[in-house]
Amino acid sequence: RFSGSLHFDRRLIGADIEGSQAYARALTRVGILTSDEASTICKALASIDPDSAAQSNDEDVHTYVIGCLKEKAGPVADKIHTGRSRNEQVSLDTRLWLRGRIDGTLGLLRGLMSALLDLAARYPEAVVPGYTHMRRAQAVLWPHYLLAYYEMLMRDHERLTQARSRVNVMPLGSGALAGSGFPVDRVALASELGFESITLNSMDVSGDRDFVLDFLSAASIAMVHLSRLAEDWILYSSEEFDWLELGDGVTSGSSLMPQKKNPDSMELVRGKSGRVIGALTAVLVLMKGLPMTYNRDMQEDKEQLFDAADTLASSLEMVREVIDTTSLKPERPRQAAEDSWVVATDLAEALARSGVAFHQAHVLAGQLVLESVQTGKKPADWTPDALVAFDPRFTPEMASLMDPGQGMKTRRAHGGTAPETVLAALSEARTRLEKLS
Questions:
Q1: Strand partners, 245
Q2: What is the pLDDT of residue 437?
Q3: Mean pLDDT by groups of 10 residues along the chain of 437 residues
Q4: If I label 282, which of 138, 175, 368, 433 is the partner at 20 to 30 A Cα–Cα?
């Protein structure tokens, strides 16, 4: 019970069978198996029922598969491990399985990015306060805010794609640590199994789990991004903000308080990020003190890897559902922007464009804000005449900047929140996304 792993590594059965079939054909090419023997082995492997492993008492997936093969193919099954070690076999199986899971996760990421763009298109002109230090800072367009998360997810897609490249290296033919004693064509094996390249050092193969760490690192960063989005939307859907209405299907009530609509789905996403980060930490600690090459400690990477992959996938699906069923109340964040002094920087920059040194413009705009706070004035209360009367360096035209939707129009530099810039960014984002599919 202590050393067994079949209860979790049985999900590698498909990969183990695929790799063993390819290896049987490779053994045929070097004269270890006849064509008939290889055919018998491959057919027997194909007939193994993965579901029956749940009732098996075998120690691990490899023991289970070879046991089934012996029952179905007879004595010829004993030839399948000629020149092949468990060490390279488990690396191969894990790479095959993880490659497929990354492909699925990349698809989920693209779906989530598409949902963000769809939500942005539903409220193209909505103005919201942007925050620094959790204090209202400057006004931005709602699509600009969503595009920030789009960029995070795009980097996640890039990191997972890079991780996939390092996963997609074929280890078979490395033996236990010193290489194969039989002239198997490793390049042909790699091509047959869909790998981009082969590993270059047999000792490295035996002791390597960098490809697992690559995935866990990318998964952890992706979960951090989902957690940050969850934190935002938990806040923005609260009564204190009241910007967002989350769908009924992704919220829950209270067992005691009838009025509650709790953002459980996003709270769980925020919480599950810790599981994935914990998996990365666990495997880093697992590997940090291992001597060359294979050590049984490395068996402990599987549960962390499987759980992290499952958690990331389910979280991506859930956040997609939340986005698809969430509605913005545009008048609420707009009012928050109008009631605050998110326009102060716009005023300072307008003064700078008129010839006032920016440091002086910054001080002057700050004095206007202080006066307003002390007298209970909101930005909209300042008329052109009152603004000029406060200080003649202000011009009557600058009063229009008291509308938070006006100042953002100056932010036309690429990556800014000017309406035409954001519209172009949305179009560009959709094009980039389509190129990934």
A1: 327
A2: 80
A3: 95 97 98 98 96 92 96 97 96 98 98 98 98 98 98 98 98 97 97 98 98 98 98 98 97 90 97 98 98 97 98 98 98 97 98 98 98 96 97 97 96 98 98 95
A4: 175
Largest CA distance in the chain: 100
* Residues whose CB falls within 8 Å of the CB of residue 414, separated by 6 or more in sequence, listed in order: 421
Are residues 168 and 102 in contact, defined by beta-carbon separation less than 8 angstroms? Answer: no
Catalytic residue check, 180: no
Q: Which of 302, 305, 309, 312 is nearest to 8 (CA)?
A: 302
| Catalytic entry in 52, 197, 254, 327 | 254
Query: One of 35, 133, 414, 437 is an active-site residue; which one?
Result: 133
Q: Write the DSSP symbol of residue 34.
A: -
Q: Are 25 and 191 in contact (CB under 8 A)?
A: no
327 three-class SS = strand
Query: Catalytic annotation on 133?
Result: yes
What residue type is 164 in one-letter code? R
For residue 367, give the amino acid letter. Answer: Q
Global model pTM greater than 0.85: yes
